[in-house]
Amino acid sequence: MELLKGKTALITGAARGIGRGIALKFAAEGANVAFSDLKYDEISQELVQELQLFGVKTKGYSSDASSFEDSEKLVNDVLADFGAIDILVNNAGITRDTLLMRMTELDWDLVIRINLKSIFNMTKAIQKVMLKQKFGSIVNMSSVVGLSGNAGQSNYSASKAGLIGFTKSIAQELGSRSIRCNAIAPGFIETDMTAKLPQEVRDQWVKTIPLRRAGTPEDVANLALFLASDLSSYISGQVISVCGGMHR
Ligand code: NAD
């Protein structure tokens, strides 16, 4: 269908998991894909090779989304290499799950810096580009636990809820320039992040999901595609769940 033909997308934390799924989906729909991760290693190289099979321009960058300087440099480098950035997917994120009783200051600071400050860093760096071109779609990766909270994830839930407030504010600030900003709230998605959980915890999660299965990166990528493309041209400031009916 080539829903993103001629568009350039920048996706953070895309070497694996959901970000990787989004990169592949966007390339399949004709987008040029720039992506970042903490390290540009063999996994990133493999992704570049896979993306090239779609005949689009692509490049991976080593960049820490939680660093203000790195984010600024990443946006400038991508602009120099691709000439434009139409879509930003703020996907990079981590967990440091534990009950508040055991949570250290470092557990809190790390999660807030990587999951929430990164969104500020990247959006701040890209806004000048999008304001100038009077066009852009920003997609922020939240979580259903940002909507509902979850025991053992107070740091993560707070970061993902904060991201929703940021998304809604940016949608209001930049809407008059045709820049849209939305958030995705995935439920339980099979990636390295959830593979860390014990099998019994994973089985318990699946039992609570009305569709009785974990989601895939492609399930999330399908919504990212919709929000990045002109199919959603009148949708901004929204949070949409991809959770098999888990969040009600
Ligand atoms: P993942 O751990 O499989 O992949 C995350 C990627 O982000 C990794 O490649 C990692 O190296 C990269 N990364 C981490 N910190 C970074 C930083 N500071 N700068 C740049 N890259 C960084 O995780 P995933 O499951 O694919 O999660 C992707 C996003 O989706 C995260 O924001 C996560 O919170 C969110 N999410 C995931 C689930 C799930 O069930 N997997 C559910 C809800 C939300």
For this entry, give a set of tags.
single chain; 248 residues; alpha/beta; Rossmann fold; 7-stranded parallel sheet; 9 helices; 7 strands; globular; binds nicotinamide-adenine-dinucleotide
Written overview of the protein:
By secondary structure, this protein is of the alpha/beta class. The protein has one domain: 3-Layer(aba) Sandwich (Rossmann fold). The protein is built from nine helices and seven strands; from the N terminus they run βαβαβαβαβααβαααβ. It has helices spanning 17-28, 42-52, 68-82, 105-133, 145-148, 154-174, 192-195, 199-207, 217-228; strands at 8-11, 32-37, 58-62, 87-90, 136-141, 179-186, 239-242. It has a seven-stranded parallel sheet with strand order 3-2-1-4-5-6-7, sandwiched between helices. Strand 1 (8-11), helix 1 (17-28) and strand 2 (32-37) form a beta-alpha-beta unit. Helix 1 packs parallel to helix 2, helix 3 (68-82) packs parallel to helix 4 (105-133) and helix 4 (105-133) runs parallel beside helix 6 (154-174). The longest helix is centred in the middle third of the chain and has 29 residues, at 105-133. The two termini are 32 Å apart. The relative contact order is 0.15. The mean pLDDT is 97. Residues 12-13, 15-19, 36-38, 64-66, 91-94, 114, 141, 143, 186, 188-189, 191-194 line the site of nicotinamide-adenine-dinucleotide.
